[in-house]
Design goal:
The complex is a heterodimer of chains A (352) and B (327).
Chain A: H1 2-16, H2 18-37, H3 44-69, H4 77-91, H5 96-123, H6 128-146, H7 156-162, H8 166-173, H9 176-179, H10 182-185, H11 192-210, H12 212-222, H13 224-229, H14 234-260, H15 267-283, H16 295-315, H17 322-335, H18 339-343
Chain B: H1 2-12, H2 21-44, H3 53-78, H4 86-100, H5 105-125, H6 131-150, H7 161-168, E1 170-171, E2 174-175, H8 176-194, H9 196-206, H10 208-213, H11 218-243, H12 256-265, H13 277-296, H14 301-319
Antiparallel strand pairs in B: 1-2
The chains are: A mainly alpha (352), B mainly alpha (327).
Protein name (chain B): ABC transporter permease
Subcellular location (chain B): Cell membrane
Pfam family, one (chain B): BPD_transp_2
């Protein structure tokens, strides 16, 4: 009897997360396929390279998740990422203490951008999409002030340690017997960006989601009026959501600086990251109507988007055809949502 | 409520109704920008360049491309949707028009836009995929098609003479591009305020379910609006190719966000259902003049971006504020 109810429980949970489960399945299929066909598939080197390419997009996708959960959209995530990227290229060097201060400054800058977005949305009572369109222009302006032309100086050791596996961290900073300790061997192969990704999700996203503020974000997305009447602090939750979004986007920019050892106020790149973040959020099973989805789903969405491009490299598809295939895959992925239309019994249900 | 407002407008002429307020304020801001710019040129060069008819006509000519895109975008925003496929619809129309050449160039450019619009409309209206993400996907596909077609380089084909004349030619001293924009504007005004389709667009923007129950073929109206938006992008792309005598990669990128900004600055509600076409025209003029004055002042790109963003927020804070949720 007990197992049966556990089964039904599992079934309900699965049916509530169809989008996310589909995304995980697509990712698993594509990624295993990629590794099977890669000459050095299932090796640490490949995994490190892939995690490096994923981290920034995954962060920006997590950043986008929060406004989307509120039922809005943030067009400034790419701009915040770019701004923090340019800031990091100035401050991530010097003594370890200076670098630590620089790291804090970068995180604070990202969160501050998000906080400003939140305040404009809450106190200015503007629609998020249009408010962030404007603040995004401002942040890009600041980024251009900081880096009129690409360049910068990021500490080489830090950059090397953060974009490789755990062994390189230990070897660079000399702990666990320079990474040779027996106990360390079992985890030394794990790519650092992958660890950072999991840490960000577990240490920042999970506690937020479980908090009252986090649950208020979901409640606002489902029905702002109902959330208000339930006595939830709507303003605080909205500002917190945008601030956290800015923080995530900032972490993405910070990592991009470590990865490229430089800063670049690249406007097309900022736009591309913003648009890809929306795609990743949707592919990850989050509803653009708000109230449904998780930031973990968005990470999966980012993984799916990136894995598709990984496969291009293996099969030496004509580079000129790659954008077309990417476009069709993206369109097909988001069109999966259209299956809902077939299930609708009453036409009125369509007009939600 | 909308009928009440329109009778009020008729009775008092151009009195400041909630619908007209954004237009009045935005127009005032256009004058402020002109005044600041003129003050700057008087102080530095001793001439009031900005007030000369040549300068103003030139700005309107540059603005007409944005104006045409914004006109189409407004239809879609009034529905409560958005069209993010503008950049590569513009580029694809321009590339196809120049590739075909000859007398068929302009019809081909418009057809490309129309086709993209129909696909967008089908996805949004019948498949019920949020426009935000569906048009984003269509934009990616169009980009892929064009990269495959051109090999990633700017196509070598040139715009036809007719396209160039439409973009840079002059009739009685007035640039033809402005006349094209004016024609589109007349069409938009008639469509929005005099036609059944226009009324349906406002109704769908307010509540699609109610419009459907009132017997409006909402899905067909949505497809029509997206088709017109696509055609507007196609027309803008064709003209733009004429303006620069050729098509190139990414030529439409600079038109998406300014078009949305112009529509919203003009008082159209981003969630749909409210807004007048005149506002969009004023919004376009504001965006174009702001950019022009900032470049006359020789501000670096960084400063222009910051001021541009701040002005949009400021304008919206004055009249674009939403209702506080209290129930």
């Amino acid at each position: 009897m007990k197992t049966r109810s556990a089964m039904t429980d599992l079934k309900i949970r699965a049916s509530q997360n169809v989008g996310l489960l589909t995304a995980i399945a697509i990712f698993a299929v594509f990624y295993i396929f990629y590794n099977l066909n890669h000459p050095r598939g299932f090796s640490t080197a490949v995994l490190i390279q892939n995690s490096n390419e994923v981290y920034a997009l995954a962060m920006v996708a997590m950043a986008q998740t929060l406004p989307v959960l509120l039922g809005g959209l943030d067009l400034s995530v790419g701009a915040v990422m770019t701004l923090v990227n340019t800031l990091a290229s100035h401050v991530l060097n010097g003594t370890p203490f200076e670098m630590f201060l620089g790291f804090l400054a970068c995180v604070a800058a990202g969160a501050a951008c998000g906080f400003v977005n939140g305040c404009v949305v809450v106190y200015g009572r503007l629609q998020p999409i249009i408010a962030t369109l404007a603040t995004g222009a401002v942040y890009i302006g600041f980024a251009l002030f900081l880096r009129p032309s690409p360049g910068g100086d990021v500490d080489g050791d830090l950059s090397w340690a953060m974009t490789n596996d755990l062994f390189e961290i230990a070897a660079t900073y000399g702990f666990a017997e320079n990474g040779e300790a027996a106990w360390f061997k079992t985890i030394a192969w794990i790519p650092t960006p992958l660890v950072l990704l999991i840490l960000t999700a577990v240490l920042i996203w999970m506690p937020f989601r479980r908090s009252v503020t986090g649950r208020t974000v979901y409640a606002i997305g489902s029905g702002e009026g109902a959330a208000y009447m339930s006595g939830l602090n709507i303003d605080r939750a909205k500002i917190a959501a945008f601030t956290l979004g800015g923080l995530f986007a900032g972490l993405g920019g910070l990592y991009l600086a470590l990865q490229t050892s430089s800063g670049n106020a690249d406007i097309p790149q900022a736009g591309a990251y913003t648009l890809n973040s929306i795609a990743a959020v949707v592919v990850g099973g989050t509803s653009l109507l708000g109230g449904v989805g998780t930031a973990v789903g968005s990470i999966i969405g980012a993984l799916v988007l990136r894995t598709i491009s990984f496969n291009f490299r293996i099969f030496e598809i004509d580079p000129l055809l790659q954008p077309l295939i990417e476009g069709f895959v993206l369109l097909a992925a988001v069109s999966l949502g259209a299956l809902r239309v077939l299930k609708v019994k009453n036409t009125l249900e369509l007009f939600r | 409520m909308s009928s009440l407002e329109s009778t009020e407008t008729k009775r008092f002429g151009i009195s400041i109704t909630p619908e007209n307020k954004p237009i009045v304020i935005a127009s005032g801001f256009v004058l402020v920008i002109l005044a600041i710019g003129t003050g700057y040129t008087l102080a530095t060069q001793g001439t009031a360049t900005l007030l000369s008819p040549t300068y103003l006509l030139q700005q309107l000519q540059v603005g007409s491309f944005l104006g045409i895109v914004a006109a189409g975008m407004m239809l879609v925003i009034l529905l409560g949707h958005i069209d993010l496929s503008v950049p590569w619809t513009v580029a694809a129309s321009a590339m196809m028009a120049t590739a075909v050449g000859g007398p068929a160039a302009i019809p081909v450019g418009l057809t490309v836009g129309l086709t993209v619009g129909l696909v967008n409309g089908f996805g949004v209206a019948y498949l019920r995929i949020p426009s935000m993400i569906f048009t984003l996907g269509v934009n990616a596909v169009m980009r892929g098609l064009m990269v495959a077609h051109t090999g990633g380089f700017a196509p070598q084909t040139a715009a036809t003479d007719l396209m160039q004349w439409l973009a840079v030619g002059k009739v009685l001293g007035i640039p033809v591009a402005i006349l094209v924009w004016a024609a589109v504007s007349v069409g938009m005004t008639v469509l929005l305020s005099r036609s059944a389709v226009g009324k349906s667009i406002y109704m769908i923007g307010n509540r699609e379910a109610a419009a459907y129950l009132a017997g409006i073929p909402t899905r067909r109206v949505i497809v029509a609006a997206f088709a017109l938006c696509g055609m507007a992008s196609g027309l803008a792309g064709t003209l733009l190719a004429g303006y620069s005598t050729k098509a190139y990669q990414g030529m439409g990128d600079a038109y998406l966000l300014p078009a949305i900004a112009a529509v919203v600055i003009g008082g159209t509600h981003i969630l749909g259902g409210r807004g007048r076409y005149l506002g969009t025209v004023v919004g376009v003029i504001l965006v174009v003049l702001l950019n022009s004055v900032l470049s006359i002042m020789q501000l670096p790109e960084a400063g222009r971006q910051v001021i541009y963003g701040c002005v949009i927020i400021l304008m919206l804070l004055v009249y674009g504020r939403g209702q506080k949720v209290t129930q």
